[in-house]
């Protein structure tokens, strides 16, 4: 079992995040899905960015920080689109983070970050929120810091292709993404079990 905190996109906390959390829970993982907009949602990126402006980035990050207060330090941090930026903002405060999942955007990885941290990126190809230069910068941080990085690009799909409520949705790409995410979490859970076994001996 892995512990996961999933931060929503700029559209607010919607069915796509809640359904994703339920899917991960059915696989045996514990998932927290904080509402960073206080109930506000949008159906377009333009509306979402207006919401973000109204709430304010500092408030978003502070709400995320409070949501993490009771979560073990080794939890996996996951973000959808805007949520990847939240992960990036809070990662320096959580050095024991078990893994990082970037969905629908390539966020920066702050340095220093602990060697061996596992990072997985899922994004459309092309995607303005995961341009080649940003992915290249991510790979460079990984190279310098000794991280483990998997990059999965999905050609020909829209930005938020995992969301059935949006025109971007692509069933095959979404299913492949969640299978890969579940594999990532199972590996995280396996490492946690191995670490616990070593500590007991």
From TrEMBL:
InterPro entries: AB_hydrolase_fold, Dienelactn_hydro, Dienelactone_hydrolase-like. The keyword Hydrolase applies. One of its GO terms (molecular function) is hydrolase activity. Pfam families: DLH. Gene3D superfamilies: alpha/beta hydrolase. This is Dienelactone hydrolase family protein. Residues 4-187 form the Dienelactone hydrolase domain. The keyword Hydrolase applies. Coiled coil: none annotated. Keywords: Hydrolase. It comes from Saccharopolyspora rhizosphaerae.
